[in-house]
Amino acid sequence: MKILGIDTTGQTASAALVEDDKLICEFTLNYKLTHSQTIMPMIAEIIERSETEKASIASAIPKSMLFKTKVIPGVI
C-alpha cells in the first residue's frame, strides 16, 4: 500500500511516499515560500519522479494526524 505523508507543521515543508514500510521518495524544502506555494509542487514532483499513479496512493495523511490516527506511526 502506498501512503503519501505530508508535514506542514513548521517552517519547513516535507512530503514523502512510503510503500509497505519502505521509503520510496521524500522531498523537504526550507525556503522563503509559504506552504501553499510549495507543498503541491512537491507532491507533484514525488509522484512524477517515483512514476506513481495517483490512484495507487491509498491515503494522504498530514504528519500532525499520524499519531492521533495511529495509521502509520513513526513514518516520516
Helix content: 25-40%
C-alpha Rg (nearest Å)? 12 Å
Instruction: Give the CATH architecture.
Output: 2-Layer Sandwich
Q: Please name the fourth-level CATH homologous superfamily.
A: ATPase, nucleotide binding domain
Mean pLDDT rating: 78
Task: Give the strand content.
Answer: 35-45%
CATH topology type: Nucleotidyltransferase, domain 5
Main sheet: strand order: 3-2-1-4
Oligomer: single chain
Counting DSSP E segments of at least 2 residues, the number of strands comes to: 4
Protein structure class? alpha+beta
- H/E element string? EEEHEH
**Termini, distance in Å?**
16 Å
Low-confidence segments, given as residue ranges, are 67-76
Outline: elongated
Q: Quick one: biggest sheet?
A: 4 strands, mixed
Task: From the structure above, extract its key features.
alpha+beta, 4-stranded mixed β-sheet, disordered C terminus, 76 residues
Textual characterization of the structure:
This protein is an alpha+beta fold and 76 residues long. It has a single domain, classed as Nucleotidyltransferase, domain 5 (2-Layer Sandwich), CATH 3.30.420.40. The chain has two helices and four strands, in the order E-E-E-H-E-H. The protein has a four-stranded mixed beta sheet. The C terminus is likely disordered.
